[in-house]
Amino acid sequence: MVVTLLDPERGRVDAYARSARKSTRRFGGRLELFARGRAMLGSSRGQMPNLTGFERTESLAPADIDWARLCLASTIAELALVASQPEHADPHLHQWACRVLALCDDLPPARFRLASLTIDLGFLHAIGTLPDIDACAHCDGTLSAGAHWSVASEGWRCAACVPSDTAMVTQAALAFVRQLVNDPATARTGFLSRSVGQHLRQQVDELMADVLPKPLQSRAQLIDALAALTP
Ligand SMILES: [Zn+2]
C-alpha cells in the first residue's frame, strides 16, 4: 500500500507501507487516515521510501467519522495533496491542513456549510491566492465601510470603487471572514448571513476553478452530503 504523508519541512512524501493493513505493531495500531505523528522512513524501493513505522500522536479526525465529516476531511486531504510537492517545505499548508482537520471533529451538522467555506478560504490563503481583505484592490483605500468581492475584479473593492447599487459585505462580516481565515475554529460559533455566505461561496468556487488543475474528486460527494444535511 502506498501512503501519502504531509510534512511541514519535506512537503509531500509518498511511501510504501508493506502489509500496513495487517501490521498493528509497526504502525501503532491501524495506520489510519488523518493521523498526525512521527513517521519512520527506511531504504527506498525504487524512487519510493519504505514506511517502516508510524508513531501516532494525534487523530485529527475521529476514528468513527460519519459520512458527511469524511467528505469534508477528504476534501482537505485532496486539496493538501494537490497543493503539496515532494521536497518542498510548506509550513502554511501543513498548518492549514491540521487546523481544518481538527475542525471536522465533533462539528454539528448545522455548521458544515460554513466549515466547508472556511476550509476553502483557508486553503486559498495558505497557497497565497486569497485576495487581501485589508485594502481595496482598486484604490488601496480602507474597507471600513464594507466591501464587495468579485474574482473578476481581482479582489475586494471599497464602496467608492463599485457601482452604487452593488451589494456590499458589511464591515462586521468582513471581520468575521478574516477570523475564519486566521482561526478556522471560529466556524463553530460565528455566523454569516445566507446571502453573504452564498456570495463568498460563488467567488471561492471561481477562484478554486482557476487554481486547481482539475475539479476535486471529493467535491461532488461533499456537495451531496451538504445537500442532505441542510435542505
Ligand atoms: Zn477603492
Examine the coordinates and then state which fold CATH places here, giving the name of the CATH topology: de novo design (two linked rop proteins)
Reading side by side through the largest sheet, how are the strands ordered?
Answer: 1-2
Gap between N and C termini: 39 Å
The name of the CATH superfamily reads Recombination protein O, C-terminal domain
Any ligands, ions or cofactors bound here, and which?
A: zinc ion
Topology of helices and strands:
Layout: E1 2-7, E2 11-16, E3 35-45, E4 48-59, H1 67-83, H2 91-104, H3 112-126, E5 148-150, E6 155-157, H4 171-182, H5 194-211, H6 219-229
Antiparallel strand pairs: 1-2, 3-4, 5-6
What are its keywords?
single chain, 231 residues, alpha+beta, de novo design (two linked rop proteins), two-stranded antiparallel sheet, two-stranded antiparallel ribbon, 6 helices, 38% helix, binds zinc ion
Descriptive account of the structure:
The chain has 231 residues and is of the alpha+beta class. It has one domain: de novo design (two linked rop proteins), CATH 1.20.1440. It is 38% helix and 18% strand. The chain has helices at 67-83, 91-104, 112-126, 171-182, 194-211, 219-229; strands at residues 2-7, 11-16, 35-45, 48-59, 148-150, 155-157. The strands form 3 sheets. It has a two-stranded antiparallel ribbon with strand order 1-2. Helix 1 (67-83) packs antiparallel against helix 2, helix 1 (67-83) packs antiparallel against helix 6 (219-229) and helix 3 (112-126) crosses helix 5 (194-211). The protein is elongated, with a radius of gyration of 20 Å. Zinc ion (ZN) binds at residues 136, 138-139, 141, 157-158, 160-161.
